[in-house]
């Protein structure tokens, strides 16, 4: 009986402390990427607190909301710009492991907190607990059947973290995942277009956006389409504040068993794309092959887009079906 009472009191006190922690504006975040290494490793649990003064955040690590990606970012403040006329403050940030500053500036209203301390690996553990919370709850239920402390502990565990990658809900009882802005989509936006397949005018060649973008060229007939250009297959938007040069190529993934060539022989893309800040580059597909050297069937591959300057790359799935007649 004494042991049960002790567990109940401990779990109740722990639950109360967590509620107070959130009530005063402190937050717990799980870092999902490594652009703040070595200061903050990936998978760490980071504790943040409200910022008291907007004039004293130079070189501090902050969490801010990035609207275009609907995500929260944790980076270090590298500079502040004041506008006396508009009475505003613009903040420039940068990841400790990134070579360049973030391609955005944020306003004070987007800042949600400043870094206090982090605990390595704990973020991974809490993410696993959240993913398999039903297993944890079942084990506790079996070990401490019908004991109130079980429900207290399970309820507390549910506070860390919420479901959803890089999501945050502003409540007094929820933690969040944060990204540290080193991914491809932090700098570029990939988008589909309304360009139709050559063989089916009712179906678009590209669908999706960013990590869901796919390219389906449809059926290409060797006699008719062996030298064809498909304009505006998909687009790339440069979200940075400077000129960017990307390298593009097509890589083979799968081909018919008897074919001696892959999709990189059938379809070509521009070798490079130079894009001004906030401008859109339309990517065409060039179909150019010899029908006699190509076996009918389904060819699959990847369009590889790389940014050597920032060390970023991304692959877009592409498929084409070949018929000779």
Automatic annotation (TrEMBL):
Broad EC category: hydrolase
Gene Ontology CC: one annotated term: membrane
GO molecular function: serine-type endopeptidase activity; signal peptidase activity
Record-listed E.C. numbers: 3.4.21.89
Membrane-crossing residue ranges in chain numbering: 5-26, 132-160, 172-190
Record keywords, A-Z: Membrane, Transmembrane, Transmembrane helix
InterPro entries with a match to the protein in the record: Peptidase_S26 (IPR019533), Peptidase_S26B (IPR001733)
CDD domains attached to this UniProt entry: S26_SPase_I
Range of residues in the leader sequence: none
GO biological process: signal peptide processing
Claim: Nucleus is one of the keywords in the record: no
Alphabetical list of PANTHER family matching this protein: SIGNAL PEPTIDASE COMPLEX CATALYTIC SUBUNIT SEC11 (PTHR10806:SF6)
This protein's name: Signal peptidase I
């Amino acid at each position: 009986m004494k042991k049960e009472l002790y567990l109940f009191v401990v779990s109740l006190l722990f639950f109360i402390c967590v509620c107070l922690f959130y009530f005063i504006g402190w937050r717990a975040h799980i870092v999902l990427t490594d652009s703040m290494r070595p200061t903050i490793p990936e998978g760490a649990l980071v504790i943040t607190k409200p910022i008291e003064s907007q004039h004293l955040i130079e070189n501090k690590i902050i969490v801010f909301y990035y609207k275009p990606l609907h995500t929260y970012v944790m980076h270090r403040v590298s500079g502040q710009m004041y506008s006396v006329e508009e009475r505003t403050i613009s903040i420039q940030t940068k990841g400790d492991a990134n070579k360049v500053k973030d391609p955005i500036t944020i306003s004070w209203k987007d800042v949600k907190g400043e870094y206090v301390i982090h605990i390595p690996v704990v973020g991974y553990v809490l993410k696993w607990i959240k993913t398999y919370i039903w297993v944890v709850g079942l084990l506790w239920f079996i070990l401490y059947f019908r004991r109130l402390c079980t429900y207290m502990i399970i309820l507390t565990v549910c506070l860390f973290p919420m479901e959803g990658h890089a999501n945050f809900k502003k409540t007094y009882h929820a933690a969040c995942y944060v990204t540290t802005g080193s991914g491809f989509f932090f700098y570029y936006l990939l988008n589909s277009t309304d360009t139709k397949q050559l063989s089916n005018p009712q179906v678009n060649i590209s669908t999706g956006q960013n990590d869901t973008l796919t390219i389906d060229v449809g059926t290409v007939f060797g006699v008719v389409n062996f030298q064809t250009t498909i304009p505006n297959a998909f687009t790339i938007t440069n979200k940075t504040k400077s000129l960017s040069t990307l390298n593009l190529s097509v890589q083979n993934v799968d081909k018919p068993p008897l074919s001696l060539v892959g999709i990189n022989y059938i379809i070509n893309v521009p070798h490079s794309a130079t894009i001004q800040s906030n401008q859109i580059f339309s990517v065409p597909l060039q179909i150019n092959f010899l029908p006699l050297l190509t076996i009918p069937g389904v060819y699959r591959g990847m369009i590889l887009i790389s940014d050597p300057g920032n060390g970023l790359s991304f692959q877009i799935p592409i498929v084409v079906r070949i018929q000779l007649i």
